[in-house]
Amino acid sequence: MEFIVNFFENITPVQRTFIFIGGISFFWIIEDSVPLFNFNYKKWIHAIPNLFFTSTTILINFLLAFILIETSDYLIENNLSLYNYFFDVPLFFKILISIMILDLVGAYLAHFVEHKIKPLWMVHLVHHSDHKVDSTTANRHHPIESIIRFFFTWIGVLICGVPVAIILLYQSISVILSQFNHSNIKLPKNLDRLMSYVIVSPDMHKIHHHYRLPYTDSNYGNIFSIWDRLFGTFSYFDRSKIKYGIDVFPSERKNSSIYYLLGQPFQSYQKPTYQKKNDQVN
Ligand SMILES: [Zn+2]
Fold this sequence. Notes:
Distance between the termini: 40 Å
Order of helices and strands: HHHHHHHHHHHH
Bound molecules: zinc ion
């Protein structure tokens, strides 16, 4: 465990980039071998807007990172860190609890709020309006969403006062898990379901990308599935019936245009419509 903390204490930007690109490349290859859906698409063309928004996400997080570092250092130097005080448990559990809090506040809560507050939904819509969900969809976030998510991560850091190494470890796990659960891979159903008792599995997250309610407003988790199970937002739906996108924003051409997507949050508010009960297959 100390080795991992030491590694993330001294991690360089090059190593962080390697983790990010390594992850996306790995899932990019795997999803070509065992795809969940045969999209028959020009993968690189589809990836252009997604990689554009991935770049803005990386840039915003890079520019704002000093806020997390300053907050963490301040809390630790002034003995205000919950991590140092209250987590009087072995290092493994200290790290696990910290990552769980960061996942709850920085990912689950941020995501939940984005679905419930109207203007934030219109910002988050950019992520949902991808008609072909794959590993490149993971960080398809409008720049405003990247700032919102950063804010929630900052609240998480403020709550637990973790050292910078743990923040970087959390962010690395978070990005890999997000690439994993967005990638267009077909795991054996039982394995996927078994995984979904601990982490957010690919099928579990794909249900969140179904084009109609109530599925869109479920399965908000990113790393741990416990939050959805605990707060009653977990849902199951047959993966073969999943249709991506949002029904009230049906134009795939518009939803693939960077220019259009940059302006999407400023359109009038629309939520997806509810699917008929009969179609809600369990
Ligand atoms: Zn969402």
